[in-house]
Amino acid sequence: MTGLSPRQQDLLRQWLPDATVEHDHSWGLVATTVLEVTSGGARFIVKAGGVSDHHIVRELQAHRHWLGPWTSRGLAPALEHGDDDAKLLVTRHLPGGLVLGTAFEDEPATYRQAGALLALLHAQPAAADNDYERRENAKSLAWLDGPHRIPAATAERLRAEIAGWPTPPARLVPTHGDWQPRNWLVHDGAVAVIDFGRAAMRPAASDLTRLAAQQFRRDPSLEAAFLDGYGADPRDPAAWHRTRVREAIATAGWAYKVGDETFEAQGHRMIAEALATT
E-assigned strands of the chain? Predict the structure, then answer.
């Protein structure tokens, strides 16, 4: 199969001997191949990571440890096979269409369901981390020290602000890491979740950053519906500001790295808006 290494192809033949590719859902910007296949009369999703991929292992960890509250309700794909070393996994295909770009993206009911779903994930056991904030600051500084198109004066202002931030202990919970309509499916009115390649233990508020920069910014009623479904607002103002700044820097830096100019422009806008609230 195109995009799979010999080792990955061997494993897939063992797991799904008669697999037939129906669709290639690969994104193209990252070294991950995503295939929709049929085998034995059932439909599956195959994800295979390239040499530089670090998302598959995260996704496997999420499936094994954190997705039970969703998979038990049929609201996330169930893991069938996985191999960390080969960077390969197979899940059951989840019916539905992406919310992104459809009328569902503008409906408060979608966000109310998404908020309730996220609350289930975040309600799992938390962990205290005294070093989380320092590590996240270091990541932001690394982005600023690397290649990007953030204006020099803005980059220096960001460095100065980060240097002055406190580094209090953080409460970490299982997070999705890319919580937005492009990773939500809707089927018969029910919202479900896909794509766990950025799943990790983080502060709960971090899962609101993509929405805050996009859909919530466009329509405050969507934010209100989301928080109604979630049950509360997990954003402490000071920690939320630090999170927004870090997310903005990473967005601008990553998008420049992969050549996504539209997303890069969003990152620059996010930086400007975050700094405006300093």
Answer: 20-24, 32-39, 42-49, 79-83, 88-92, 97-98, 127-129, 170-175, 184-187, 190-193, 200-202
Last residue in a domain, options 55, 73, 94: 94
CA 112 to chain CA centroid, Å, is 19
Residue pointed to by tokens 């295909």: 93
Max distance between CA atoms of the chain, in angstroms, equals 59
Domain span at residue 213 reads: 98-276
Q: Is residue 249 within 8 Å of residue 143, measured between CB atoms?
A: yes
pTM of the predicted model as reported, rounded to 2 decimal places = 0.94
From residue 9, give the alpha-carbon distance in Å to each of 2, 87, 115, 194.
9, 11, 38, 23
**Is the separation of the CB atoms in 201 and 61 below 8 Å?**
no
Q: Which amino acid is residue 203, in one-letter code?
A: P
Whole-angstrom distance, CA of residue 226 vs CA of residue 81: 33
Decide: residue 9, CB within 10 A, 0-12 exposed, 13-18 middle, 19+ buried: middle
Two tokens, residue 170? 């953080």
The pair of structure tokens assigned to 206 is 């971090």
CATH number of residue 72's parent domain: 3.30.200
What is the chain's length? 278
pLDDT in tens, 121-168: 999 999 999 999 999 999 999 999 999 999 999 999 999 999 999 999
Degrees (nearest 5) of the Cα angle 170, 171, 176?
A: 110
Tally of domains within the chain: 2
